[in-house]
């Protein structure tokens, strides 16, 4: 019994970890900036391309293979540093306070630009760089082989979840973020540089998406179209958890990944639609998502 | 202290303030009286940089406020309590009061000293320090907003319709708090907006009447 459930559990949680990184970034950006960034999935694929390229380059120059781990983090940080502040300042900032249709059109335009940019820079070939996964090896439990890298993904997702919660609850920056989320104007009057908070929140969101992409590279590789595929999945997770809810994104990621893994094992034909069937079921019962708070009218 | 010169403000094509000019003096309380929509709130919001002006000049001493973004005005020593309180519901009362101190990177000792001073002046806040900001009554919220503004108000304190919606007992309590504050911090310039002049007649040094974005009447030293 354990031998049939444990592989499902590990597979599901490892998948959930990757979806969580991108979904929590999306939900963080939404909660602070109040913008649904359609281009968010592109940062996942750019992070994946960056990590794969950096990893392959390290292999080509004969570098110590253990450097492939910091390379994953460095590539995500570079993507965040390069794209986060620039895109927020030059493009996203102009959509604040505008209608949702404008925000979606602008970020969809950005998504198309970033997709073409990736094709120009990285070509249309798939990239695969599995050194981080092979280095960690496998563990045998009851005759079943488990990839240690999957366990690492689960641990990293938990670290990010706890880290975000601590950042928001225990740090000065977290207090300022929470204040801006609650009331941007009064936050400004109390001395908070809200433009900087917006830029920071957007860049953290980009970093988390890029980190998800970078960490996914050793298991799945990266190919054109990854951004769009990830984006739709991240939307489903964020919607199920409740937009703006960090813990909601974590639990929703587990639900979606479990649905996907169960479908793969038992009804492979439903593999692609399983997450959206779950989303449909949840939103029919709770339109604001599992942990979302229904908007109250301000008097 | 704070000099407002020929302030013009338009919102969506409609001119709200028309050449508003007046000065706030250190240690004096100026009351800006006007009906709803006269431009009182817009004047305060413009001083705080929350509303873009189309003309005019704002000087704090020798500092041109145009050179400082809205968020920089708290650090310059301007405290602001908005009309509708605008507390952060998820923060406790004390966290709300401390917000400007965190935002302006106030040193821990100074932060604690100012918090103690706020509690001395407004003792009712101390007993509700742990309550969530979203759980206090309207009147208590006005008091919290006053305490929050005081954390940074070294030079100017802007209070937007502080008595509006207060029950008579709370209004009296608030007025007494303002008198204590005036005695404890004689250097601050107060600007208080109100629609009913009689509420502030006992604490006003100067009264200004604003009507449709124009300062119409100015009264000198009150009794």
Fold blueprint:
The complex is a heterodimer of chains A (299) and B (223).
Chain A: H1 2-33, H2 40-60, H3 68-90, H4 100-122, H5 131-136, E1 138-141, E2 144-147, H6 148-170, H7 172-182, H8 184-189, H9 194-220, H10 226-241, H11 246-266, H12 274-285
Antiparallel strand pairs in A: 1-2
Chain B: E1 2-11, E2 14-24, E3 29-33, H1 40-47, E4 55-60, E5 63-64, E6 78-81, H2 93-103, H3 108-121, H4 123-127, H5 138-150, E7 156-159, H6 168-184, E8 189-194, E9 206-211, E10 214-219
Parallel strand pairs in B: 3-8, 3-9, 6-7, 7-8
Antiparallel strand pairs in B: 1-2, 1-4, 4-5, 9-10
Q: Could you walk me through the main structural features you see in this protein, from its secondary elements to its overall organization?
A:
Chain A: This is Branched-chain amino acid ABC transporter permease. Chain A: Keywords: Amino-acid transport, Cell membrane, Membrane, Transmembrane, Transmembrane helix, Transport. Chain A: It comes from Hwanghaeella grinnelliae. Chain A: It is found in: Cell membrane. The complex is a heterodimer of chains A (299) and B (223). With 299 residues, chain A is mostly helical. Chain A has helices at residues 2-33, 40-60, 68-90, 100-122, 131-136, 148-170, 172-182, 184-189, 194-220, 226-241, 246-266, 274-285, and strands at residues 138-141, 144-147. Chain A has a single domain, classed as ABC transporter involved in vitamin B12 uptake, BtuC. In chain A, helix 10 (226-241) crosses helix 11 (246-266). Chain A is globular. The model of chain A has no long low-confidence stretch (mean pLDDT 91). Chain B has a single domain (2-219), classed as 3-Layer(aba) Sandwich (Rossmann fold). Chain B is 30% helix and 27% strand. Chain B contains 6 helices and 10 strands, in the order βββαβββααααβαβββ. Chain B has helices at 40-47, 93-103, 108-121, 123-127, 138-150, 168-184; strands at residues 2-11, 14-24, 29-33, 55-60, 63-64, 78-81, 156-159, 189-194, 206-211, 214-219. In chain B, the strands form 2 sheets. In chain B, strands 6-7-8-3-9-10 form a 6-stranded mixed β-sheet, sandwiched between helices. In chain B, strand 1 and strand 2 (14-24) form a beta hairpin. The relative contact order of chain B is 0.21.
């Amino acid at each position: 019994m354990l031998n049939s459930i444990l592989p499902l559990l590990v597979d599901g949680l490892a998948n959930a970890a990757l979806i969580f990184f991108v979904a929590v970034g999306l939900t963080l950006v939404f909660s602070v900036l109040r913008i649904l960034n359609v281009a968010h999935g592109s940062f996942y694929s750019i992070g994946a391309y960056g990590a794969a390229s950096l990893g392959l380059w390290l292999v080509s120059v004969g570098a110590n293979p253990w450097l492939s781990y910091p390379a994953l983090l460095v590539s995500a940080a570079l993507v965040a540093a390069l794209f986060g502040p620039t895109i927020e300042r030059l493009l996203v900032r102009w959509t604040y306070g505008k209608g949702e249709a404008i925000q979606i059109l602008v970020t969809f335009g950005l998504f198309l630009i970033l997709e073409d940019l990736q094709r120009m820079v990285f070509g249309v070939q798939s990239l695969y760089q599995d050194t981080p996964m092979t280095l960690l090896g496998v563990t045998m439990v009851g005759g079943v082989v488990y990839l240690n890298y999957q366990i690492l993904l689960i641990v990293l997702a938990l670290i990010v979840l706890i880290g975000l919660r601590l950042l928001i609850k225990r740090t000065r920056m977290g207090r300022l973020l929470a204040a801006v989320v609650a009331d941007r104007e009064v936050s400004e009057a109390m001395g908070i540089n809200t433009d900087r908070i917006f830029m920071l929140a957007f860049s953290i969101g980009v970093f988390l998406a890029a980190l998800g992409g970078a960490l996914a590279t050793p298991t799945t590789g990266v190919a054109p179209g990854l951004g769009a595929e990830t984006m739709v999945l991240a939307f489903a997770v964020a919607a199920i958890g409740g937009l703006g809810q960090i813990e909601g994104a974590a639990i929703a990621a587990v639900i979606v990944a479990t649905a996907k893994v169960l479908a793969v094992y038992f009804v492979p034909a439903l593999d692609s639609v399983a997450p959206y069937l779950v989303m449909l079921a949840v939103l029919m019962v709770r339109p604001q998502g599992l942990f979302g708070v229904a908007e109250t009218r301000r008097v | 202290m704070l000099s407002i010169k020929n302030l013009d403000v338009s919102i969506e094509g409609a001119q709200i303030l028309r050449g508003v000019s007046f000065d706030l003096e250190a240690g004096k309380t100026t009351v800006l009286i006007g009906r709803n929509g006269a431009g009182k709130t817009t004047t305060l919001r413009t001083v705080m940089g929350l509303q873009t002006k189309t003309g005019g000049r704002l000087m704090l001493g020798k500092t041109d406020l145009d050179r400082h973004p809205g968020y920089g005005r708290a650090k310059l020593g301007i405290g602001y309590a908005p009309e509708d309180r605008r507390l952060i519901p998820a923060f406790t009362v004390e966290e709300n009061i401390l917000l400007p101190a965190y935002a302006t990177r106030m040193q821990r000792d100074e932060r604690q000293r100012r918090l103690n001073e706020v509690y001395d002046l407004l003792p009712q806040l101390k007993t509700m320090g742990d309550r969530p900001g979203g759980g206090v009554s309207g009147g208590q919220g006005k008091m919290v907003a006053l305490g929050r503004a005081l954390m940074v108000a070294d030079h100017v304190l802007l209070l937007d319709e502080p008595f509006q919606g207060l029950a008579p007992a709370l209004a009296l309590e608030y007025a007494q708090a303002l008198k204590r504050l005036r005695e404890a911090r004689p250097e601050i310039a107060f600007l208080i907006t109100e629609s009913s002049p009689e509420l502030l007649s006992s604490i006003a040094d100067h009264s200004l009447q604003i009507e449709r974005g124009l300062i119409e009447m100015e009264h000198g030293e009150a009794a």
